[in-house]
TrEMBL record:
One Pfam family linked to the record: VTT_dom
Highest taxon of the lineage: Bacteria
Native organism: beta proteobacterium KB13
Name of the protein this chain belongs to: Membrane protein, DedA family
InterPro entries in UniProt: DedA_domain, VTT_dom
Membrane spanning residue stretches: 20-37, 57-78, 98-116, 123-144, 175-193
GO cellular component: plasma membrane
Residue ranges of domain VTT in the record: 53-157
Keywords: Membrane, Transmembrane, Transmembrane helix
Amino acid sequence: MIKFDSIYKKTIELSAKPAATFYLFLLSFTEASFFVVPPDVMLAPMCLAQPKKIWRLALIAIIGSVLGGVFGYFIGMFGFNLVQPYIEQYGYQSHYELALQWFSDWGFWAIFIAALTPIPYKIFTIAAGVLVMNFPLFLIASFLGRGLRLFGVACFVKFFGRRVDYFIQRYINQLGWLITGIIGIVIIVEFLTN
């Protein structure tokens, strides 16, 4: 049986290591263009482990994420034919079609909302490149959306710090299994509806 409390403690330990900042940047970059794990998962424990560096860590995550979004934009602009089979294979086709619809309806706001929420931002960055969205607007929307989201995580940890840590340590196993169950249900629903 998985013990999420030991995984959480190990994450906190690793978050205090010097190389963790690079991994936070790398995770933020890759999540915005092709990877599935959001930077929030690493940012929050790092902020708990290094409370004096909270704003710096949030800024690193934001910069990494926006640069990853730019990479996604260029994937869409120059290499969409290479990634389209993966979008279909991993079940993101409906998200991609939604992104195209949102761009035709809302443009700037589509990127902003995707950058701010748990909607797969990477799909929107690629779609923005495919549709050759106005690049300065793309950058502004990405920076504002990711900035609000990741600075929001940092603020949450800053103001509730040890209480958040206490809550997580006390309920980590229940939270871990709850999240695992939700992910499992989403996968099953996605499989059954495709």
